[in-house]
Amino acid sequence: MMNRKEWIEYFESINNRKPTIQECQQALLNGEFVMEGKQATFSNNGKSVTEGAMPLPNQMNGQMVNPAYSQQMVFVKKKKFGKKTFIGLGIALFLVLATSLGLFLFSSKGTNLGGLWVNGNNAGLVYELSGKKSKLVAGHREEEIKEISIGQKVRQKFETSIEEVSDSKLKTIADFDKKYQLQTKEIILVKTKVFGYYNLIQKDGTNLVLDLFLSDLYYGSRSTKDLKKTCLFHKAAVPKVFVGKWKTYDDEDESEGELTISENGVMTTDSDDIDILNVKPLDILIAKPLKEYLVDQSGSIDNDKVQKEFAKIQKSLKSHGFQAKSVNDIYHDASKSYYYVLVDGGKRIILLEDSFNLLSYKGYLEREDTR
Question: What is this structure's pTM?
Answer without folding.
Answer: 0.70
